[in-house]
Structure prediction request, 254 residues.
Amino acid sequence: MDIKTEVTDGVSVLFIREDRLDANNSEELKVELRRFYESGTKDLVIDLKEIHFIDSSGLGVLVSGYKNASTSHGTLKLSNLQSQVKSMFELTRLHRVFDIFTSVDDALQSYR
Amino acid sequence: MKNDIDIDITIPSHTRYLRMVGKIGEKVAQEIDCPEGIRETLSSQLAIVLTEGLVNAIKHANSADPDKEIHVRINVSNKNLVVRIYDNGVGFDLDAVPSPSFASGEIEDKGRGIFILRSLMDTVRYTRSDDGNVLEMRKNLP
Prediction:
């Protein structure tokens, strides 16, 4: 999985450079998120701008990351949800669980 | 214009084919004779329904055995859209799959696939037999 990581003001931003987050590739992200929180990262933003398709496996990995964050007393926020991804979040009511922002800047702003 | 499409796909039981089958589903839905807005929604829904149904067949029914095959049929008529996904594995009990909890303290990272199928399709049925199993999903067309 192609992921670019940046750190701004102590917040890590993961840019997922794939067009799908599904059962074929989501396990890699799951491992990556667990690794982040186990290594001491507290605050993470995942930017989903390039993801145009997500399935229940992809949703599950984001939930898994959210639970890793909670266990570490950290946060996991999401930015730039595209329309299919937004629909899937609403269908499964996960839009009420995650803090979702329209841009990375807005997500970073929420930490200031 | 009459809707009369019948597509048959056979793939190895592996998630690498999810993208391809999803794209085929999108293309099929784009040919359905109905208002454009509905067609776009159906296209997106068919892609996710195929993906979720296939993942169930690959992971649960076929126990992630890549030597097994999965057969997909997509039928479009004037009345409805029918997707059938055939596996020849041990199968699973559809009725035993609970809906995911929506209580914020209890969110699970698994279990949304069948819920998604039931939400997007009008009927979802899984039939097991010695010759193989089939997940059949129907959606009525406007």
User: Anything to note?
Assistant: The helical segments of chain A are 26-38, 56-71, 83-91, 104-109. The two ends of chain A are 30 Å apart (CA to CA).
